[in-house]
Amino acid sequence: MSSLLNESDLCHENAVVWLESPDELDYVRQALDKTPRRRGRPRYERDGRMVGYAELDAQAEADPDSGLQLRRVFFLLPHDRDANPDGPYHEGAPGEAVDPRTIEPRRVGDKTPRSQRGPAAIAANSNYCG
């Protein structure tokens, strides 16, 4: 699934569960994963670590072919800024990264100067009109 999400992808979310404090993280990556349940901690099969996930309401329907639910998962990879501050994301951030303090159920989250950190990101944000 694409990690670049639309709010229409999230219409059945009713809670975001954090496994780590979002206040301690500059950004998190987000993706939609197929899971067998609407609630509870989903299985995680990536490098790095899961730092949070969304839970779905009772009206969320499973995919008719697979029987699986699409749920948002928040994660970080070993080369991300929190574990490797001088690494590839010392400035900038991956495309699917958003500021975890802006995430809510049914809301994708925003790229902020903190999440994007770097002169280009801060300059671009100062021209933002939305």
TrEMBL record:
<feature type="compositionally biased region" description="Basic and acidic residues">
    <location>
        <begin position="98"/>
        <end position="113"/>
    </location>
</feature>
<keyword id="KW-0614">Plasmid</keyword>
<dbReference type="InterPro" id="IPR046051">
    <property type="entry name" value="DUF6009"/>
</dbReference>
<dbReference type="Pfam" id="PF19472">
    <property type="entry name" value="DUF6009"/>
</dbReference>
<protein>
    <submittedName>
        <fullName>Transcription factor</fullName>
    </submittedName>
</protein>
<feature type="region of interest" description="Disordered">
    <location>
        <begin position="79"/>
        <end position="130"/>
    </location>
</feature>
